[in-house]
Design brief:
This protein has 3 domains: about 150 residues, P-loop containing nucleotide triphosphate hydrolases (Rossmann fold, 3-Layer(aba) Sandwich); about 70 residues, no CATH class; about 80 residues, no CATH class. The termini are far apart. It is built from 11 helices and 12 strands. Strand 4 and strand 5 form a beta hairpin. The protein is an alpha/beta fold. Helix 4 packs across helix 5. The chain has an 8-stranded mixed beta sheet with strand order 6-7-8-3-9-10-12-11, with helices on both faces. Strands 2-1-4-5 form a 4-stranded antiparallel beta sheet, covered by helices on one side.
């Protein structure tokens, strides 16, 4: 099923096959003096790929996604999507970029982000209206989007308050894909759902990235949710990217102590990580004087080397970590 209306044509130079659709280089975001949220973040995502971005509350993962759509103040670095440099877009240029629908964003809480006074039909049709699709051309695309996310067309005249949590999340997803985006940013798409609906939405994201050749960035605090669908995983801590790589090695043999702590704490993952958990729960002493590593204050392996900011180094195909002691910290004695 494809869109039949004339959406605005894509402009710019599309990436060559295999090249990243999304490129983030040296990204820094600040909300004012002393309020740096992200520093030096380098990431990319390819068409048809799911990139999971994980970290605890305050790590900067939502800010990263908001920066891509122009909702967070970028102070350094560059963001390009499908050959378009979005870093410095402001005012009319930003509005035009959003109107094109190249990038779409699913907010964390659909009950708050969906207008309670609009029907499902109106909510899904709104991005088409913004994109310049004539009124008579919207209806078939709204219905096609409902079909694609597995919602009964009979729900089209309901308002969000008359839907279940899982139905609202699928309305938010239908709204996000109706303009044929190349990149979808999904902020905690399953955090408020029960297990059944969570699995359904995750399977739906996995199917849609294949059907639509979408690059999807899933923001999450839960490794368990990402384990079955993410191709690659990036780990943020205090605004810095501490590890990234293919999902399997990041989950099964994390390079960074913080990534290992997240993996070992996830109830649905391999219990062989209990040894890591025991190591990493060893109470850390005071951070080494002048420690530049953002995790040093929690890391039982931090030492004088950590006074220097660790650069991200490769330790396998596509797998890198910003840790002076990766990958051999497991063999060290906790301090």
């Amino acid at each position: 099923m494809t869109l039949t209306t004339d959406l605005p044509a894509r402009t710019g130079t599309a990436p060559a096959p295999g090249e990243p659709l999304l490129r983030i280089s040296g990204l820094g975001v600040s909300y004012g003096a002393g309020a740096r949220v992200l520093t030096g973040v380098d990431l990319d995502a390819r068409a048809g790929e799911i990139l999971g971005v994980i970290g605890e509350t305050g790590s900067g993962k939502t800010t990263l996604a908001r920066a891509v759509v122009g909702l967070a103040p970028v102070v350094e670095g560059r963001i390009t999507v499908d050959g378009h440099d979005r870093t410095a877009l402001r005012g009319r240029a930003l509005r035009e970029a959003r109107r094109g629908g190249l990038v779409q964003y699913m907010f964390q809480d659909p009950l708050r982000s969906l207008d309670p006074d609009l029907t499902v039909r109106q909510l899904i049709g709104e991005p088409l209206a913004v994109a310049g699709v004539a009124r008579q051309g919207r209806e078939p695309e709204v219905l096609a989007a409902l079909d694609r996310v597995g919602l009964d067309r009979a729900l089209a005249d309901r308002t969000p308050g008359r839907l279940s949590g899982g139905q609202r999340q699928r309305v938010a997803l239908a709204r996000a894909i109706v303009t044929r985006p190349r990149l979808l940013l999904a902020d905690e798409p399953v955090s408020a759902l029960d297990a059944s609906n969570r699995n359904h939405v995750l399977r739906l994201l996995d199917r849609l990235r294949r059907e639509l050749d979408l690059a999807i960035v899933v923001i999450s605090h839960d490794l368990d949710s990402l384990a079955g669908i993410a191709d690659r995983i990036a780990v943020l801590y205090r605004g810095r990217l501490v590890e990234q790589g293919p999902a399997e090695p990041v989950l099964d043999r994390p390079l960074h102590p913080y990534s290992a702590l997240l993996a070992a704490s996830a109830p649905g993952l391999d219990r062989r990580r209990r040894a890591d958990l025991a190591l990493l729960r060893t109470p850390a002493q005071a951070s080494p004087p002048g420690a530049a590593c953002v995790f040093a204050h929690r890391c039982p392996f931090a030492d004088a080397d950590c006074a220097a900011l660790p650069a991200s180094r490769p330790h396998g195909p596509g797998h890198s970590a910003a840790c002076h002691h990766a990958p051999d910290w497991r063999t060290r004695r906790p301090r």
